[in-house]
């Protein structure tokens, strides 16, 4: 839940397909052998090659000469055969040129695997679409691209085809035709045994462990099974490795992998066009067949195919069951006591589907045992599964696999890490312990933890239904409403469980609030209605778009139905971990509760015979929550409200946060951050684990917040606001005056204040010397859309203002004081003088030359942009 895709004008609905390009050629390995080299482009542009040797080419044989009586056969999508250690596919002519979705997952991984992204059994490695194509005496795997398109009825269709040639992944000699010559037989042994990026390790894993290719002597095909609409190939691959995660003496790393090939529908599901005002994951294409006088980017949402069993009853407004229910299976490896809560988290979505006219649309079940269904596999592409990982990672995520032609979701494997419970425990404690005596203990009851698991289960399942994070949802509820028992019992903490609206840190002792976590809410019902409502009459996507657009416009302006994208730091409403419609008010309550919790950490986490590591962990969580509160407030300064609209809606899409709110935000920071938060220094609790680093930690937080407040991009937006709105804008000059008056107050600053004053001057120095670097290659408006508003520092008004600010500070510094205070002020004078008039070192030239003054050059990247670029590949809790 911590990390997921950006949507907006430039990133709206983006789902980037990595097409695997391949070429094949022959090379001489042995004079008597013909070899095939497969070269594939994997994630990140890295290539992998596999050279597979075979006997000298022979003519096409009779089917019975290859598939003998000793053959082990399996019938299904492709009939598969195993003969003397070789595996064959019998491909019927009816399935040639049909599109098939291919997904490769880990089955088992070695201990100690630590790489970005996937690393546990059940997690996805690759996804691709294949088409099997016959040409003369060979069969090719083609990899179609869906980035550009035109309808077959469009006069642009042929032109698009000519510019969108499908790449060839691999080729196979035809070994035989089947008995009635309506199918071909090929040998796939070397293909599945090879080192092929499309069905093997990701580039990240190969780089991390210095993989040098497959060791065939330690690898094999375990099974290839065929089912009515899919085949499943399970392999064990041992890769030669220079850096094994377990034991380098092996010189290798071993994985079990499963590659599912699932037949896509012959008639694709009708796509539903995206609308930036309603949040859905999706994919986009450049469409040349729309009839417009330019190519058009069309985007489709990701959703399951739901159609009513009884269309007539559905049309009357009755709740109707779908023709095909959405089913999730719980991993058999899941601890039994958590299974009912995971199931409940899935089933909770039925009330949202009722808003779309469906009953019993979704269900979770325990996976069948081997006795109940010997063919069931959690890696099988036909099944959606919540996989349980024995991992110390504090996370969970909800991906889905979709048809790239239409956005139809076909299956999902939710990733559930065991230690997500640690995260839930700490957050629930830190955010609610002031009003929730039930958490005043080291270990939560199974029922308490189960309900928290249910909440996370619902959130992750929401992602698998196509719903992204809605970071704007929690803004809909007034802060004071979250102090009402009546309100929170009915609504929880936000209108959407897809927000990062965790637990109610606003409620105060005596309010009587007991319902402290999110639930599926008003926005969730609306988004499912928008995405999954079925329309009779075989309407086109454009016709449906018109109806859905009217629905959306009627709800515009109602905060309950507002969608706020993830991945931008412009809009203060679109933040993770926040609650309520006013961060300053909400976080004042939050800090009041932290002040109540901090002195009781030892008492409320007591566990006989244990050391104080739990106290230290919870103390760190308090610091983190405090820092989070400050971050919520900062975003108001230089902030802009973002409200996507269509031509038929009035008002601005972007407008600046009001002057009063920006002033209130700085006032909050002056009071809660830049005035030393001495309450964070609890000597009794710190004596149990702190070995002398607390002053530096507080300084680090204060300076980091200060750096964020004075980031170049934030100041750029403030100048833009002043230029457009004049006296109605909160200006950079006012920001300097307000902050200076708080940081430089009193004639004898304490250690924390001295650190902060030096940090402020260092920040001003960076504004004079550091240029905005941005991200080369990214358009300015794209950077601005995520909060990295570009600015030319050398030509801006910032540097003149900074020089004036430094002179004001220098002129106002007190004189005298005790030895430490006097030394501090003398140091500040020198820092300011050096910043305004930097010394330039003399560079001695070789004999015959003369000394010249050269500026001190250093590599800088700007300030205040830590962790600003969002992750886009998978959702995390």
From TrEMBL:
Show where the DUF5118 domain sits.
60-109
Entry's InterPro entries? DUF5117, DUF5118, EcxA_zinc-bd, MetalloPept_cat_dom_sf, Zn_MMP-like_bac
The residues the entry assigns to the signal sequence are 1-31
Per its UniProt record, what Pfam families does this chain match? DUF4953 (PF16313), DUF5117 (PF17148), DUF5118 (PF17162)
An MF annotation (GO) of this entry = metallopeptidase activity
Q: Which UniProt keywords apply?
A: Signal
Task: Give start and end of each EcxA zinc-binding domain.
Answer: 442-745
- Describe the location of the DUF5117 domain by residue ranges: 122-309
The species is Mucilaginibacter pineti
Coiled-coil positions: none
- The answer, when asked if Metal-binding is one of the entry's keywords, is no
Is Signal a UniProt keyword of this protein? yes
Q: What is this protein called?
A: Zinc-dependent metalloprotease
């Amino acid at each position: 839940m911590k990390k997921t895709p950006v949507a907006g004008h430039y990133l709206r609905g983006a789902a980037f397909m990595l097409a695997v390009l391949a070429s094949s050629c022959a090379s001489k390995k042995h004079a008597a052998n013909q070899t095939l080299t497969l070269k594939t482009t994997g994630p990140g542009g890295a290539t992998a090659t596999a050279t597979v040797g075979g006997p000298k080419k022979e003519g096409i044989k009779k089917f019975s000469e290859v598939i003998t009586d000793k053959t082990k056969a399996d019938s299904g999508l492709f009939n598969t055969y195993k003969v003397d250690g070789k595996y064959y596919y019998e491909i019927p002519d009816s399935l040639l040129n049909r599109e098939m979705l291919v997904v490769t997952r880990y089955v088992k991984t070695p201990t100690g695997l630590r790489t970005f992204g996937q690393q546990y059994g059940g997690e996805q490695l690759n996804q691709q679409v294949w088409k099997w194509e016959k040409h003369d005496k060979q069969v090719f795997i083609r990899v179609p691209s869906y980035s550009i398109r035109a309808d077959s009825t469009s006069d642009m269709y042929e032109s698009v085809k000519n510019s969108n040639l499908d790449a060839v992944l691999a080729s196979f000699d035809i070994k035989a035709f089947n008995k009635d010559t309506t199918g071909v037989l090929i040998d796939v042994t070397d293909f599945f045994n090879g080192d092929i990026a499309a069905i093997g390790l990701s580039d990240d894993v190969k780089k991390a462990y210095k993989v040098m290719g497959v060791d065939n002597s330690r690898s094999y095909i375990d099974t290839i099974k065929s089912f009515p609409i899919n085949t499943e190939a399970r392999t064990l691959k041992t890769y030669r490795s220079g850096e094994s995660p377990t034991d380098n003496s092996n010189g290798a790393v071993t994985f079990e992998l499963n590659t599912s090939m699932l037949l896509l529908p012959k008639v694709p599901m009708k796509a539903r066009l995206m609308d930036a005002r309603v949040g859905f994951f999706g994919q986009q294409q450049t469409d040349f067949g729309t009839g417009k006088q330019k190519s058009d980017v069309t985007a489709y949402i990701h959703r399951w195919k739901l159609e009513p069993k009884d269309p007539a009853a559905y049309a009357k407004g009755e709740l109707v069951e779908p023709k095909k229910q959405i089913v999730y299976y719980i991993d058999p490896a899941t601890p039994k006591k958590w299974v009912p809560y995971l199931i409940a988290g899935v089933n909770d979505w039925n009330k949202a589907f009722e808003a779309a006219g469906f009953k019993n649309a979704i269900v979770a079940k325990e996976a069948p045992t081997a006795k109940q269904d010997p063919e069931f596999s959690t890696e099988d592409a036909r099944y959606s599964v919540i996989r349980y990982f024995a991992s110390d990672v504090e996370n969970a995520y909800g991906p889905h696999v979709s048809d790239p032609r239409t956005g139809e979701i076909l299956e999902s494997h939710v990733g559930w890490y065991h230690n997500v419970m640690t995260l839930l425990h700490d957050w629930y404690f830190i955010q609610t312990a002031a009003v929730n005596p039930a958490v005043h203990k080291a270990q939560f009851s199974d029922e308490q933890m189960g309900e928290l698991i249910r909440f996370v289960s619902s959130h992750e399942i929401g992602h698998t239904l196509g719903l992204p994070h809605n970071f704007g949802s929690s803004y809909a509820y007034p802060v004071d409403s979250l102090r009402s028992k009546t309100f929170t019992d009915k609504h929880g903490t936000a209108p959407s469980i897809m927000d990062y609206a965790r637990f109610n840190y606003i409620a105060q002792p005596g309010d009587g609030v007991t319902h402290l976590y999110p639930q599926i809410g008003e926005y969730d019902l609306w988004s499912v209605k928008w995405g999954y409502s079925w329309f009779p009459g075989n309407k086109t996507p454009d016709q449906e778009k018109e109806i859905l657009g009217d629905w959306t416009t009627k709800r515009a302006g109602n905060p309950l139905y507002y969608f706020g994208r993830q991945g931008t730091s412009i809009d203060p409403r679109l933040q993770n971990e926040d609650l309520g419609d006013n961060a300053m008010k909400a976080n004042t309550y939050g800090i009041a509760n932290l002040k109540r919790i901090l002195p009781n950490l030892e008492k409320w986490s007591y566990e006989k015979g244990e050391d104080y590591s739990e106290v230290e962990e919870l103390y760190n969580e308090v610091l983190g929550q405090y820092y989070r509160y400050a971050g919520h407030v900062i975003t108001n300064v230089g902030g802009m409200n973002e409200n996507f609209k269509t031509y038929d809606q009035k008002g601005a899409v972007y407008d600046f946060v009001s002057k009063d709110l920006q002033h209130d935000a700085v006032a909050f920071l002056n009071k809660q951050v830049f005035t030393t938060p001495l309450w964070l220094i609890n000597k009794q609790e710190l004596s149990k684990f702190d070995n002398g680093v607390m002053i530096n930690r507080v300084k680090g937080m204060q300076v980091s917040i200060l750096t964020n407040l004075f980031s170049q991009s934030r100041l750029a937006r403030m100048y833009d606001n002043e230029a457009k709105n004049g006296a109605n804008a909160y200006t950079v000059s006012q920001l300097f005056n307000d902050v200076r008056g708080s940081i430089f107050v009193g004639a004898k600053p304490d250690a924390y204040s001295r650190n902060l004053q030096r940090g402020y001057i260092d920040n001003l120095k960076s504004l004079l010397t550091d240029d905005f670097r941005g991200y080369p290659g990214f358009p300015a408006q794209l950077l601005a859309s995520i909060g990295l508003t570009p600015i030319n520092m050398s030509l801006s008004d910032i540097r003149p203002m900074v020089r004036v600010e430094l002179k004001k500070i220098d002129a106002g510094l007190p004189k005298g004081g005790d030895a430490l205070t006097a030394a501090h002020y003398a140091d500040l004078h020198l820092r300011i003088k050096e910043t305004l008039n930097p010394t330039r070192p003399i560079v001695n030239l070789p004999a015959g030359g003369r000394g010249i003054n050269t500026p001190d050059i250093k590599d800088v990247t700007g300030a205040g942009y830590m962790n600003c670029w969002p992750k886009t590949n998978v959702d995390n809790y």
